[in-house]
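Give me structure tokens for this 135-residue protein.
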Amino acid sequence: MGIFQRSIALADLSCLENKILELSVALVSEDEIQKLNSQYRKKQLPTDVLSFCEYESTEKLCEKKNENEVFVGELILCPKYIERNANEDGQSLEYALTYITAHGIFHLLGFEHGKKMFALQKQVADELVTSKNKK
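Here you go.
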């Protein structure tokens, strides 16, 4: 199971059962993500991920219950920034990329920063990376 599928399963949104969910992913440089971060969030710094949600909330996303295919939004990831932070935090790049990608996906599904979201993205990374490396 991949990051997207596991994140969706853990989000536990029954309204998304049997749906084909789509998202767009772009990998960009630190300069590019800094420009986007400045333009959309008014922050003059690079960042690890930006999520551009198609729906403003989980409730709005779930209103699409009659559609078989649902585009949830776009993730913009900066691998260089993620790699640098992973090195500083003593994490593997694989773990950090999985954790940050899950973070962005949960935003696309309508989650806000908080204990639940952070616990879920950690669970995704632990299940997909840590448990794989123990085998």
